[in-house]
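sanity check this record:

:::
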Amino acid sequence: MHLDQSEQSALLELVRKAAKAEIMPRFRYLDGGDIRSKSGPDDLVTDADVGAEAVITAGVRAILSDPIVVGEEAAALNPDIISNIGSAEWGVIIDPVDGTWNFANGLSTFGVILAVTHKGETCFGLLYDPVVDDWIVASKGEGVFFGRPDASPIRLPKLEKRPLSEMHAIMPNVFFREAFGPKLAEQTRSIRRFGSYRCACHEYRLTAQGRNDFILNMTMNPWDHAAGVLVIEELGGAAGLLDGRPYSPTENLGAFLVSAHADNLPILQDKFGWMGEHLY
């Protein structure tokens, strides 16, 4: 099933409203009491995360018929709600401020991610940049569009297939702190360029716009990935776990790859699959 155009537009406007009310007024105006740690010093939550998630959660319940809502901050308090995604008729997965570390430290590389699932399958994805007020949006089977308030939506083209030696990659620095880091560092010599932006929203946006070829992820939090994976799949890409299993927003454990071109996914799984034995 699909969301109709009015529902898609309403969700987009809801996210824009939440960003204007809860996120942007706090950007570079946070003080110490507005920023808190969750699982560790680099895993942060701010008043903007909490406020935006509350606004979006209330809003989606007025737009869609009885959805379950899985927000990152709600899941931090009750991780069991993630298990509801697979069985729910409709689910809405929210990352209210993706890239919170960047946001809290005054860097403008952050965004809002929203995905809608139907019986555990992602059918709508939104990658929103509050700083410049533009977005990338995908609906399953209907392609991917870049939008902004002052222009008609632009359909993004299918992504190109490139050889490994010409690829740009995104992979978190934490991989290189693992015991297998030296082996991984040696393997990356065959890749043209790699880095990390500490923000899944912008990492998927870069990939969707043809500026990155694959993403190697250490975690599968659905609020980070469900929308972005749909975007890349609609552009001819593919996602899968290092052990060969397909990606699903109902999975919550495992390292996985997102390839801008589906034909490259098995090549990348073959190259990096050995890492899975060491991570989990």
